[in-house]
Design goal:
The structure is a single chain. This protein is of the alpha/beta class. It has a domain at 3-155 and 183-213 and 259-274: NAD(P)-binding Rossmann-like Domain (Rossmann fold). It is 40% helix and 16% strand. The protein has nine helices and twelve strands. It has helices spanning 11-20, 39-49, 70-91, 123-138, 159-169, 186-196, 217-230, 263-269, 276-290, and strands spanning 3-6, 26-29, 53-56, 94-100, 142-147, 150-151, 172-176, 180-181, 184-185, 205-208, 215-216, 239-243. A six-stranded parallel sheet has the order 2-1-3-4-5-10, sandwiched between helices. 45% of the residues are buried.
Amino acid sequence: MSILLIGAQGQVGRELVKTLTPLAPVTAVGRQQLDLTDLEAIAHQVAAAHPKLIVNAAAYTAVDQAESEPELAYRINAEAPQALAQSAAKCGAALIHISTDYVFAGQAGSPRCEADPTGPLSVYGKTKLAGEAAIRAALDQHIILRTAWVYGAQGKGNFVKTMLRLGKDRDHLNVVADQVGSPTWARDIAIAIAQLSQQVTQRPGTYHYTNSGVASWYDFAIAIFQEARALGMPLQIQTVNPITTADYPTPAQRPAYSVLNCQKTARLLGHSAPYWRESLRAMLQELAQSGHD
């Protein structure tokens, strides 16, 4: 078996290189090697690699920016996955594709199951949902893995690294307390995908995977600073104030309740995901030891 990894330089992609390489030869491509707006280039890449499995960890993830760039977001989040699925079908490959909690409206007070009605509130969510539909239409042998609130040691654009950066320089911060979800470490997602890759042909379909437990962004920020302080990371932050979504308007509307029901995935993997705070601690320990910002 050979694996083609798309989005190899992202925060999940870099972890996937580590978890997939022990399983099979991996062709890992990032945005320098493959322009996901070029659908012909996608087809050529898949034909050249002739993989048995494609893992797509790439996406347009600038949630607010997508509101003003809907065509670009749609190209990368819907048309590119469709091209990957069509190319996979041609060469007999399976596809694992990462999707998002943003396909749901986030109004329910109980964790969302895979078959629950979708209702994205943002351009980002709508384009990711369109990508899911395109994959289902083009390829039977697929796993769509929805996750949420992803952070990792790699990359800059995640909540943990943003909080650490701001916490170094500021005495106080305001953080939204009325949006709830499950913070999820990129490494845990990559480990789960490596395990799912063994079952994609037998158990295709849509799955949810996040770290277990629930937090608001405010809870998450408090935990980040507590764990970082315990590790001796340099922080100036003194107070974190809880605010409402209405106090911090953004171009894109976000789900208020982003908790995903992951029981179906836990049954398939044979275990539940690690608790979010344990994974946060492990990621921060790694960050502290590596000396990365």
